[in-house]
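Field reference: sequence -> structure
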Amino acid sequence: MLGYAAGLGPGSMRDIICEVLLRRPDLNNWSPGNIEGEVQYLIEGAPWYKIYDLSERLFSKIRGDYSYSGKEQEFASRLNAVFREHGIGWKMEDGRIVARGSEVFEMATKDAASTMLESGAPTAANEIHEALRDISRRPKPDISGAIQHGMAALECVARQYDATTDTLGPIISRLNLPKPMDEAIRKLWGFTSEQGRHLLEGRNPQFEEGELVVTVAAAVSVYLLREKARKGR
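Structure field:
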């Protein structure tokens, strides 16, 4: 419905859906009404995560074609409204469907990567980006990967802050974090080593745990970068 509202016709919709699903169009359907029925049939039979792939492909099509100029934002806005209305934990952000975490998660990660880039920490920014990609993987998020990348971003920032190549463990005591925040980060580092790197048999980290680690890692990283800038280090 959103594709049609943006100006796509049944033929264009079918082409895109068949491309996403790798399905051959039914050549016996040539009239708009029959093609629209085929579109409906293909969507109804698709796995849920393929609908998200389709949403991203439609956004890209609408944004890339001048004849639909400006309608991609309306497409994303209305899609996100449906997600919120039905309590679906995903959102469209710059044309990509990503996990929609808690409000704290959203606030901590929203500007973390850009802050890191502006502060001369591109490796940390890439690690946060990868953490968000892992936690948003479909059909099953890579929580261990998100945990590893989230803490790797914090480690990169900590190394820059301390001007060292040490791992995060030894650096924590030199970061001048308010107590007992330093101990909290140390324990989080230990949790990451166990759950992110040395996964125990039968103990898979949950989404909420990955969300917590990425949230804290992003927030502390931004704090350290701003503290470094404030002190002119």
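Note: Residues 37 and 52 are 20 Å apart (CA to CA).
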